[in-house]
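subagent[fold] <- orchestrator: predict structure for attached chain, return tokens only, no commentary.
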Amino acid sequence: MRSSLRIGNGCGFWGDNVDAPIELARDGKLDYLTLEYLAELTMSILALLKQRDPQFGYAHDFLGVLKRLVPHLQQQPPLKVITNAGGMNPLACGQQARTILDQSELKSYKVGVVTGDDLLPRLDELQAAGHPLINLDTGEPLEKIRSKIVSANAYMGSQPIVEALQRGANVVVTGRVADACLTVGPAIHEFGWKWDDWAKLSSATVAGHLIECGAQATGGLWEHWNTTPDFANVGYPIAEFAPSGDFIITKPERTGGVVNLQTVAGQLLYEVNNPAAYYTPDVVSDFTSIALKDLGQNRVEVTKAQGKPAPDKLKVSIAYRDGFMSSGTLAIYGGNAPEKARQAGQVILDRLKRAGFTYARTNIETIGAGAVVPLGNDKSQATEVMLRVAVHDPNKAAVERFTKEFAPLVTAGPPGTTGYTTGRPAVREVFAYWPALIERSVVKPQVDIL
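subagent[fold] -> orchestrator:
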């Protein structure tokens, strides 16, 4: 058994810094590089891309990153890459990764492809078998949106990642697995932990949660942003494991940002509903048992993780078509800017109503006067604000008509109206989110080695 394991995450979402994975692979002294691309919204976007072309539906930024990683993989043969960039089409993504490796000096490298999360082709079969997939938040039946569904993916666990590594994969491409599993999988594989060693699985889950958002654990969004060293060169996070499951969060030497109790504790609670029961497909982790210790020099030790048996059901992320939306902005300056902006926004909606267009939902915001975060202060005297008006409706033609009402305000609105030079706002199709649960036994992970 190895005595330590270093796993670094170089991507926190699709759209994150494309240089971070390269720099982390170069300077991180890693055993594994993980790249986390997926969110619920991302899966919806990828589903749309796949509908347009069956060969797409994955986070294609990964392929550019992989090309740039090739020299570092050549220099560091033990280094492995694990990513959920496969999104809605892991096999196509894996095949493209295979081509990149074949065109380099890495022809002997194996690509592991993890599938089985896509439940869309099986929805009717699953419902007929008694899996209702009711909305977790509202309790509504799936029939309400059945004809509009574009994707349905179960959050799989670490088991297929471990299998891919056991079968010799150097690069593992998955679809929808729980984010932390990109870290839990290699830890189980390298240390040989048992699947019911809940404390160790919980510890690895905590580590995966801490590094999954990239620089958010190393100084990103930290409240002391004005003292964060070398923000432009922020280092991405590394989890340095001991066989016991205890680990240290750190970052590469000579990089910017900071790792301390505040940055680690802040990320620990990010997007956590119940710290005493953080559900994943591998374990129910208890964050309240954890002890943090600042070791100095950008190193924070994390110990005493506890966990409970994995849940019987897996989360399912379903996306469905929900009409169209558009939003536009105008800058409003001068005296009483917030009041002028609100009136200008209402003018837009009133003109549309007079033209025969009403909407399922509308929203008028005055950004700079407490619209984003109500500050409790009197912002009525602000001398410049950004007016944002948004509409949402099943009628695309009505939303398109909305986009034509901003520019006229430049000459027909309140004084101090400007900022229209970017043209008419775009109309976008809305994909809404439907969370559900399904019995673990009906989700069948599959691993293919390319």
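orchestrator: received. Logging for downstream: The mean pLDDT is 95. Residues 50 and 57 are 4 Å apart (CA to CA).
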